[in-house]
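Here is an idea for our session: we take a single protein and study its fold together. Start from the sequence, derive the backbone structure tokens from it, and show both lines together. Once you have written the record down, we can walk along the chain together:
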Amino acid sequence: MPAVRFEGATKRYGELTALQPLDLTVERGTLFALVGPNGAGKTTAIGLLTGLLTPTAGRSLVYGVDVARAPEEAKRRIGFVPDRPYLWPKWTPRETLRFVGAVFGGRGTALEERIEAELRAFSLVSSADLRNETLSHGTRQRVALAQAFLHDPDLLVLDEPMVGLDPIAQKTLADRLRLRAAEGAAVLFTTHQLALAEELATVAGLLVKGKLAALGPPAALGVPSGGSAALSEVFFDLARDEET
């Protein structure tokens, strides 16, 4: 059973079609990058997958569970980082992780030990007991990442996860994502950074104006047999074709 499956997933707002019928499968152990220009439909696809949005037509499945029909069951298997993480301002990172851990069934000593491990992993120990409202954007992003990893989800969904992170935090995140994929989890992330998709992803999909324009390994996306091109070249070529 695949980790993610979009079956004709569509989202319309009146006359605007934000996401055209999307058919896409992400297998376990895959690092999948969803790339595309602004307004391409990446965040809309993420919203349908995480239950933040309801599809106009079609459906999104997480390990065979229809997200719209059984959202709680689907969300139990997801670790999610939105493009603009919201943290309760008066709480601290430690309190934030404690709450998230409890929501996913964590309790007692085991939860506290896991919280400490995530605080260390994302270099948050010195900020652990400061109010979230006092933290920098990059630090808040690391808190959001820590809470996504906290319950060892089978699927990590990250919307522009590298934004605001310094190079050390970016490497930490990339290493953690590779490890989770090696352990059998699936990772789906959006990015504007084509170099990141080429470096980290095993499969990439290009969205342009709400339509999946290309799909395949980043190093050979859309390249004829025997050819070679960077994902960035294919990205600009396809995006330009769509515009014209």
